[in-house]
Amino acid sequence: MWKKLSKKKKAAVIFIGFLIVLWFLIPFITKNYIINNSREIFGRKATISSLSFNYFTGSINAKDFLIYDENEKDTLFFTSKSHTNLNFFSYLNDDYIFENIDVEGLKLNLVFSDSVLNFSGLIDHIFNSDEEGESSKMIFENISIKNSSVTYKDKNINSYGCAKKVNIQTLKPFSASELILNVKTDFELESGGEINSQFTYDFKNTQYDIAFHSNEFDLSVFHPYLADLTYSKSSGGKYSSNLNANGFIDAPIKSSVKGHFNLTDVFLNDSTNNEIASIKDFSVGIDSMNLSREYFDLKSIKLDKPFAKFTIDNHSDNFSRLIKYDSTAASENSYSNLFVIAGKYIAAFINQVKVSNFSVDSMNM
User: Fold this and answer.
1) Kind plus residue range of the DSSP H or E element containing 275
2) What DSSP line would sit under 26-49, residue for residue?
3) What is the spatial distance between Cα 18 and Cα 12, in angstroms, rounded to a whole number?
4) What would the pLDDT profile of 264-303 be if each residue is shown by its tens digit?
5) Among the listed residues 40, 37, 67, the one whose alpha carbon sits nearest the alpha carbon of residue 129
6) Which of 160-169, 298-307, 339-348 has the weakest average pLDDT?
């Protein structure tokens, strides 16, 4: 039968056969290229269990994409399923548009050691290897991350936190040239509590606008940072809020806030794990707080069952003995201790804060 075919038909059959083979080979070749050259691409070892292309829609599907940490044993980044559409027409204009990025089962393990965050090395490698500013031409549209988790370990002070059931959705396209991120997110904390928010952040001028809601966030997750500065054995409580804020990270005096927050069952124990301070409930309702206009209008302040146990002897008192005055831990770990970072941030602008208009509608103590 083959011999009876004309040369043109034979050439057509060979060409079609070549395309079919190429159809199946391209994903296999691409997958192996990424695996074999992962250290050059990501600066880390990486693996992919399967990779497929849909040539009609321009979509890419990957399963079990894994990027290892620098020790090539621990997981840095993992996705069980991911789907991306490529806009090939945008390439004609020298743009790189990635549409409808769907990610499921993402696992991100962040580790802070000394002054280095492991994930920053991956980002730096990708952008430092950028050729002719190609990353600045990238545009990401409609990113959706579902059923994911993020863990954070601070080896400096033995702190650990985990966010699970993480869902993230971008609300507007994000490009490396404009650097304006508009995102909606919600997640649960392994230690307890739920958080959901919607925010916009401009990386160039540090302007932000955020709607933040939290429900019974467990404050004990911050105890390792407190223990870095004090001899306290334990501390904790619950934090809930519904706040709206906007301003500039680099110019906090231009910030404004409204909404409410409350702290419940807050406690602080000493070095022998005896309670020395607690609050049953503390809540504040904010009608409007505008730092630049020196305007503070509070709807309500409530304080229920505050408690403090104060003892004194010939040398000192129990609260003074709680502080690590002669410890070097705080200074050595100041780059990762949230209390130290927050304290420096507040100290940088607190002298600029003035209050010329202050009012409280109701107080209950």
Assistant:
1) strand 275-290
2) HHHHHHHHHHHTHHHHHSS-EEEE
3) 10
4) 999 999 999 999 999 999 999 999 888 888 888 999 999 9
5) 40
6) 339-348
